[in-house]
C-alpha cells in the first residue's frame, strides 16, 4: 500500500478479481480511519492512507506534541503495528532497545526486574523512548496485560530518523527530563 509489491500472486484457477484504486482507498480511510487501522493490522505495516490518523495519534501522545511536523511525519511513515496476546512480552530486562512503542489498543504493564508492576499503560501512551535515547538495555519488562495492538518505530529506523531530524532526540530528551 504505497510500496512496491513484495510477493507474487498467481491464480491456480479462474478467479474474479476486484480492485480498488489508491485514490478511492484514501477517501475510504479518510472517512473511516478504523478501516485503515484494520488493513494495517492485517498487513502488519502502516498503510499510506492511514498516515493522517497516525500523525494525530502522535500529536496526542505525551512527549510528541512539541515535535515539528516534518519529524512527526517521518516517525508516522516508519511505524509498523504488531498484535500481542495477553501475557506476551514486548521486551524483557537486559535486552537492547527494540524501538519506540505507541499503544493503539489494549493495556501494557511495566514491571521491575523483581516482577513488581509499577505502571499500567493504555491506548495513546508511548514507551521505550528512554532506552532509545540512552542506548541502554531495558531495566524493566513490558508485558501485554490484554490483547494489544502496538505501533513500533524500530530502533534502527529511529537512529536513521534522528540523524535526519536531530530535533527528535532533543525534544524527546527535554520532554523526558520535564
Structure, explained:
- By secondary structure, this protein is of the alpha+beta class.
- It has seven helices and eight strands.
- A hairpin with a 5-residue loop joins strand 4 (108-111) and strand 5.
- It is globular.
SSE layout and pairings?
Blueprint: H1 22-31, H2 33-43, H3 51-60, H4 69-77, E1 80-84, E2 89-91, E3 99-105, E4 108-111, E5 117-121, E6 126-127, H5 129-134, E7 141-144, E8 148-154, H6 155-164, H7 167-177
Antiparallel strand pairs: 1-8, 2-7, 3-6, 3-8, 4-5, 4-7
Helix pairs in contact: 1-2, 3-4
Please name the defining characteristics of this protein.
38% helix; four-stranded antiparallel beta sheet; Jelly Rolls; alpha+beta; 21% strand; single chain; 178 residues
Main pleated sheet: 4 strands, antiparallel
- Write down the secondary-structure element order: HHHHEEEEEEHEEHH
CATH architecture: Sandwich
Low-confidence stretches: none
> How many separate domains make up the residues?
1
Q: Give the total of beta strands.
A: 8
Integer average pLDDT: 85
What is the CATH topology descriptor?
Jelly Rolls
Please name the fourth-level CATH homologous superfamily: Jelly Rolls
How would you summarize this macromolecular structure in one to three sentences?
With 178 residues, the protein is an alpha+beta fold. The chain has one domain (22-177): Jelly Rolls, CATH 2.60.120. Helix content is 38%, strand content 21%.
Amino acid at each position: 500500500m504505497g510500496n512496491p509489491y513484495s510477493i507474487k500472486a498467481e491464480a491456480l484457477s479462474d478467479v474474479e478479481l476486484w480492485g480498488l484504486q489508491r485514490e478511492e482507498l484514501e477517501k475510504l480511510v479518510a472517512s473511516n480511519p478504523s478501516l485503515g487501522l484494520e488493513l494495517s493490522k492485517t498487513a502488519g505495516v502502516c498503510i499510506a492512507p492511514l498516515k493522517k490518523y497516525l500523525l494525530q495519534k502522535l500529536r496526542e501522545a505525551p512527549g510528541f506534541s512539541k515535535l515539528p511536523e516534518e519529524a512527526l511525519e517521518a516517525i508516522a511513515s516508519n511505524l509498523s503495528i504488531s498484535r500481542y496476546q495477553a501475557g506476551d512480552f514486548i521486551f524483557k530486562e537486559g535486552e537492547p532497545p527494540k524501538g519506540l512503542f505507541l499503544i493503539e489498543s489494549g493495556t501494557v504493564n511495566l514491571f521491575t526486574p523483581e516482577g513488581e508492576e509499577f505502571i499500567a499503560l493504555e491506548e495513546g501512551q508511548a514507551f521505550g523512548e528512554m532506552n532509545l535515547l540512552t542506548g541502554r538495555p531495558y531495566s524493566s519488562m513490558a508485558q501485554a496485560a490484554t490483547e494489544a495492538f502496538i505501533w513500533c518505530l524500530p530502533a534502527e529506523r529511529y537512529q536513521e530518523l534522528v540523524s535526519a531530524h536531530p530535533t527528535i532526540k532533543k525534544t524527546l530528551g527535554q520532554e523526558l527530563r520535564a
